């Protein structure tokens, strides 16, 4: 199985920090601890809103799902959320079979994630700090162009 690469980026959506973990490879028995460690690091830093970008994930086994469920429970304890972005059909099938499709919020695009935190452009325009508004709009544009 290929190694699991994890890239982390964080963005502020209307005052809510959201961390994106972009995964590339397989989330399986040998690589699941790497993902668990990244979840723990984020939580230790007080980052409880996490999106897993699964666009480049080829396979997830029970160990990988277990780490995701554990991460979901951990961030929920802090009123955070763990969502899934851009999962391929074969990965979605695993979530359907296990019933986890009803547990995690799933997003097809980053714009869907942005809508979770920023309900409309009006909400963005109401931000008092122009720098924050520019940063949020820049982040939304950057991720919208990834689609």
From TrEMBL:
Highest taxon, organism lineage: Bacteria
STAS domain residues: 16-117
Molecular function terms from GO: anti-sigma factor antagonist activity
PROSITE patterns xref list: STAS (PS50801)
Family: Belongs to the anti-sigma-factor antagonist family.
PANTHER family linked: ANTI-SIGMA FACTOR ANTAGONIST TM_1081-RELATED (PTHR33495:SF2), ANTI-SIGMA FACTOR ANTAGONIST TM_1081-RELATED-RELATED (PTHR33495)
The protein's name in its UniProt record: Anti-sigma factor antagonist
